[in-house]
Design a protein that fits this description.
about 120 residues, globular, two-stranded antiparallel sheet, alpha+beta, 3 helices, single chain
Length: about 120
């Protein structure tokens, strides 16, 4: 469990446990000073985004068993780097996000309005 806040100002909810995600591989999109990439945006992956990020040099599709990485597919939940998500949004290929599972530090890079425009959990 964590005491971090999400972008809505409430307690951060877990993003995904299968596959296990997060900088700390604890299911939460939370960060600290060691996380240079700021893996704080909980996204529901799409084929379009997975192909986009692979073209940028970050292949999330191919399994890497030696690293305990199963490879990802559309529909999986995953903690993305805030800058990569914003880059994808600027190119029109950002995956949907879960606001209650996205850490508040994402707002240093992405506006709340932009996240809300891609939210799957906005009531």
């Amino acid at each position: 469990m964590t005491n971090k806040l999400n972008v809505l100002g409430t307690e951060l909810e877990p993003c995904c446990f299968d596959p296990m995600t997060g900088f700390f591989r604890d299911g939460y999109c939370r960060t600290d000073e060691r996380d240079v990439g700021r893996h704080v945006v909980c996204a529901q992956l799409t084929d379009e985004f997975l192909e986009f990020t692979r073209r940028q040099g970050n292949d999330l599709i191919t399994p890497r068993p030696e690293l305990g990485f199963p490879g990802l597919k559309a529909g999986d939940g995953w903690c993305l780097c805030a800058l990569r998500w914003k880059e994808a949004a600027d190119k029109g290929v950002a995956p949907p996000v879960y606001l209650q599972r996205t850490e508040t530090t994402a707002l240093k890079v992405i506006s709340l309005d932009q996240l809300k425009a891609h939210a799957v959990d906005l009531n």
